[in-house]
Design goal:
Blueprint: E1 9-10, H1 12-20, H2 22-30, E2 38-39, H3 40-55, H4 58-61, H5 68-82, E3 87-89, H6 96-114, E4 122-133, E5 136-149, E6 152-159, H7 167-171, H8 174-186, E7 192-199, E8 204-209, H9 212-232, E9 266-267
Parallel strand pairs: 1-5, 2-3, 6-7
Antiparallel strand pairs: 3-9, 4-5, 5-6, 7-8
Helix pairs in contact: 1-2, 3-5, 3-6, 5-6
The chain binds iron/sulfur cluster (SF4).
Length: 269
């Protein structure tokens, strides 16, 4: 992406990467560097998401109930099948068993709340949508979309991270605001959309409804964020490294102007 063209498509991950560190954004999305390295937190989060995707698969939705053993077995299989040599642990006091058990706890919390029937009105899972805001094109993948009654929608997002959001933070969150806009533009009858975060580690949830005015403010914020990226494109040096604690979870040290050598964080065993 060198200039502003209508073919550029943005995602929440891109905006978040640019906000955290413009240099990381450049290396990943402009230079196209992709690494197989990942943090154990990301690895665990992906496996939990996959289990919940399996849980609401078309086949499972037809079943009257799902056992917790079934959930655990699926998690174990996914964990083993996807394990690889480039998984890293930034916290030297923790090992892979610790993160495995956090993943299990996330599933146990979810099961206690919704199992064994899981009878929500699921429209679809991993919903991949294209949409526009202003002149900008976006793409987003929604973890789960429910339609409890005609015209009423619920966007669900699963989080395995440590800290839950407060309601105030949820109201200012751009990720699910993006998904709300995506649903509005892609589904015929939309009377109401609620946004629901599942903080799986502690088994809590936050659900909000935006007023049209709040959504308008978030749209302006999103347009500003994209404009900021375009403003940097004239000169590669504009994508300055922003060093922070997040560097521990970044595997682009060899490409980064602020670092020397690879990220020294230990490999998971
Ligand atoms: S190591 Fe830190 S400063 Fe460098 S690209 Fe990654 S996050 Fe940015």
């Amino acid at each position: 992406m060198s200039k502003k063209t209508s073919s550029n498509t943005f995602s929440y991950s891109q905006l978040s990467s640019f906000k955290n560190c413009p240099q990381q954004y450049k290396i990943t999305y402009l230079d196209g560097v992709r690494k197989s390295n990942e943090s154990i937190e990301a690895f665990m989060g992906k496996r939990v998401h996959e289990v919940l995707e399996w849980l609401y698969s078309e086949e499972n939705r037809l079943k009257p109930f799902i056992t917790f053993d079934g959930l655990c077995q699926t998690f174990d299989n996914l964990w083993v099948d996807h394990w690889h040599k480039e998984i890293h642990i930034a916290d030297t006091h923790k090992n892979s068993d610790y993160y495995y058990s956090i993943g299990k706890r996330c599933l146990s919390n979810y099961y206690s709340r919704y199992g064994p029937t899981f009878d929500q009105r699921v429209e679809d899972i991993e919903v991949d949508l294209k949409f526009t805001i202003g002149d900008h094109n976006f793409r987003g993948i929604i973890d789960r979309l429910d339609q409890p009654e005609p015209g009423k929608w619920i966007v669900h997002d699963y989080k395995t991270s440590k800290r839950p959001k407060t309601e105030r933070q949820a109201l200012n969150d751009i990720q699910l605001a993006l998904y709300q806009i995506a649903v509005e533009q892609n589904f015929g009858k939309v009377d109401e959309i609620s946004l629901s975060w599942h903080f799986l580690r502690i088994g809590s949830e936050v659900t909000i409804l935006h007023t049209p005015e709040q959504l308008e403010i978030l749209k302006k914020k999103l347009i500003k964020m994209v404009d900021k990226i375009y403003n940097c494109l004239d000169n590669e040096n504009n994508f300055i490294p922003k060093e922070s604690i997040l560097c521990h979870w970044c595997y682009l040290w060899e490409e980064c102007n602020a670092k020397v050598g690879p990220n020294p964080v230990k490999r998971a065993d």
